[in-house]
Amino acid sequence: METLACSLPPAVELRCCRHCSSALPSRSASEFCCQGCETVFSLLQASGLSRYYSILERTGQKARAVEDQPSSSPREYQWLDRPEIRAEYETSGQMFFYLEGVHCAACVWLVEKLPQWVPGVESARLDLGNAVVSVRLAAHGRYSAAAEGLLQIGYRPHPVRAQEASEHSRLEERRLLTQLGVAAGCAGNIMLLAIAGYAGADGLFATSFSALSFILSLPVMTYSAAPFYRSAWIALRARQLSIDVPVVLGLLTSFFVSVWNLAHGDGRIYFDSITALVFLLLASRYLLKRIQRSALSASSLAHFLMPAFARRILPDGTREEISLSALRVDDRVEVYSGEIFPADGVVLEGRSEMNLSVLTGESVPKAISVGSSVFGGALNVGSSLRVGVTHAGNDARVGRILESLRLSANARARIDRFSDRISRGFIAATLVLLPLVFLGNSRSGWDEAFQRALALALVTCPCAFALATPLTFASVLAKLGRAGILIKSSETLERLAEIQNVFFDKTGTLTRGRFEVLEWKLLQEGRSIEQIAALIVALEKGSRHPLAEALRDFFTPLARGASPMALAFHRERLGSGVEAEYDGRKFRIGSALQADQADVLKSSATQQELVTRLVLFENEKPLAVMSLGDQMRPEAHRVIQQIRDQGLVVRLISGDSPLAVAHAAESLQIPRENLRAEVSPEDKAEALSKTPSSMMVGDGVNDALALTSASVGIAVRGGLEASVRASDVYLSRRGISQIPQLVIMGRETLRIIKRNFLISLIYNLVAAVAAVSGMITPLLAAVLMPMSAFAVFTSAILGTSRLRRALQEVSR
After folding, report:
1. Is the per-residue pLDDT at 730 higher than 80?
2. Contact predicate 750/455, CB 8 Å
3. What is the residue-averaged pLDDT of the chain?
4. I need a labelling partner for 129 at 20 to 30 A (CA). Which of 198, 751, 798, 805 fits?
5. Can you tell me the distance from the alpha carbon of 805 to that of 809, in angstroms, rounded to the nearest whole number?
């Protein structure tokens, strides 16, 4: 099978992961970037599903690295098989799961092959648009097995209820949809009746059709148009002008003039145009509401941060698995090693370590014991614990963070506020102009003056000014949310378009931000590399420490062919490493504390931002020494070049040593005048505040001050808590590959808004002149008004080709 091509600078050896095509470190002997990718690759081969890679190659897509998936417990999804849980989540014989990581046609093909390798699954159907798969079971199938099968191939599933929206929101949407349906039905029938009049019907037929049109218009004017009346009345009571004021004025005037003409036998009636106008306006507002609701909400984001269930301990000592919504304060829960804490609480029994990286960005686990506080969303990386719940749901730390994210979304862009002012000014000008037009044409007769004023009221449309801007922002933000990019507000999206300088932190931003084995060396001759590698893997087996994960990833491929090792007295000491006995000898992996051990490796590793060295001891004598460090992200070269191509200035600002910063800048071709090293957090913030139109890309914890001081702060590393507090953009996906597309989307969003302003301005100027001069009738004006609004809304939804390409890039 051919390996998909990956993109690397010419100077770098082209070696890619066989599953996700990520670049492999030059020193790595493995064909995979991580153990997860190797597992998924083997599963697909064994299941006869290798065609997945052919589909990826034909469509120009890449598989996502499985390392992005959080760790899981083998029993994580067994709670789905409980009767009360099935009753809660199962609908019409199927259960729905939101899948992390689906992004292309190959994902659809692979997910829908789930029945081929998971017994008991009858069918799986994936909706790529909202990343939700519906799973239907055979007679003796289990949803837990289906969920575990999806996780095996790299798509973490989150069970979702068929009706997640609140009852109030559901009823509001149903009412609006009913009003829209009534308007559509009545307008369609009135149009059919109007055709007879346009075709020349007269006499009794014309009178009857006009009377029927009036009757059919009543539900539209009284029921469907009610939102416009309510909005206009509220605005007038508050002494404000909204776009519904001229809309209601035009609707009511046209309706009563039509009724008057109908009563006096005049054929000039506009029931068809009035009802069509109501229908199109309701349709545009319904569309806007749907787009706004499609954005990733705080409650949806919780699925990515919290576990799927909680294991509650009952008074009699037995355990039951419950959904998080059923968890209450003072409940006792058990959290196994490798599981996420379901709520905030206090440790009642046990000793372990807690990884707070999802909240704080700190990857080094924190030791916890009886009395220690734990937080929902954090990872238990040691042994099993019993925890007393102190805060659950929205009252927990994660809940408060998500609530602050939701509130920050209310900030509006300057151009959004500007469009409001333009709309109000436009409405005021129209209301002032109407009596002037009527009086100015009164010499031509009352009827002619009224016709022109009515045409002006109908044809001028402030909808594009007031609605197209929030519609454009909502559409782009919703699509970004589905791609895992959460932008606090439309104001942030606007500022992205104005960026001129891009500041990058180095460690964890341009570099991987994780440990890798850069170099290692045997210190005793006559030892088998395979056996030493197998010993290291066996010692670090089961450990959740970042250093242990790095050692396992590196040495597992080297240990192939070695005999399995059964270790005795295996244990992990917090802060001091791991140890065990094998064949009567004691082996330990710990820090290199002595000078002669620390200086064993003399090579290019010291130029690669050396982090730490570990030593494998045999009976306290050094057997092997390993250098672990942090390498450059494989996408860094490409991203920096893409940013330069957009005309932006790339700068590197870091607290690291000048040598390390200069080495990174040289490899990325960043000029020396754009470098700053050994910079304190306060100095970073000052530099950003003095640089206009600046973007800071860095760590949500260490660079919090700089992120806050920048025009736009993007946290690519660090916890959710720091990112929400300090930055404007939260990236749920690792790496910096999405940064160039964010700038493009900011620019293209403003381009769309300006285009819509231009369309609306040209239309309204031309239409107003035509109405005042008598070139268009009220009937034609009523037809033109919704058509112009529809054109602007279509422009907002379609966007631009560059915007669509950028959205496709960030969704990969």
Report:
1. no
2. no
3. 76
4. 751
5. 6
DSSP 221: I
| pLDDT computed for residue 323 by the predictor | 74
Angle (CA) 503-639-18 rounded to 5° is 140
Residue 136 neighbours by CB under 8 Å, 6+ apart: 93, 94, 121, 122, 123, 124
Residues 439, 460: Cα–Cα separation, whole Å: 19
What is the C-alpha R_g of the chain?
32
Note the pLDDT of residue 723: 59
Stretch among 95-109, 306-320, 447-461, 790-804 having the lowest mean pLDDT: 95-109
Say how far residue 70 (Cα) sits from the centre of its chain: 17
Contacts of 200 (CB under 8 A, 6+ apart): none
Task: Give exposure, 403-418, as e/b (b: 16+ Cβ within 10 Å).
Answer: eebeebbeebbebbee
Edge-first strand order for the sheet with 729-731 is: 485-487, 729-731, 712-717, 694-699, 501-504, 649-653, 675-676
Name residues whose C-beta falls within 8 Å of residue 472's C-beta, 6 or more positions apart in sequence.
749, 752, 753, 756, 796, 799
Higher-confidence position of 195 and 651: 651
The contacts of residue 52 (CB under 8 Å, 6+ apart) are 44, 63, 106, 109, 110
Give dist(CA 147, CA 277) in Å, integer: 48
Buried b (16+ CB within 10 A) or exposed e, 606-637: eebbbbebbbbbbeeebbbbbbbbbbbbbbbb
pLDDT of 72 > 60? The answer is: no
Q: Give the residue among 404, 481, 496, 410 at the shortest CA–CA distance from 697.
A: 496
- What one-letter code names the amino acid at 90? E
Confidence of residue 652 (pLDDT cuts 50, 70, 90): very high
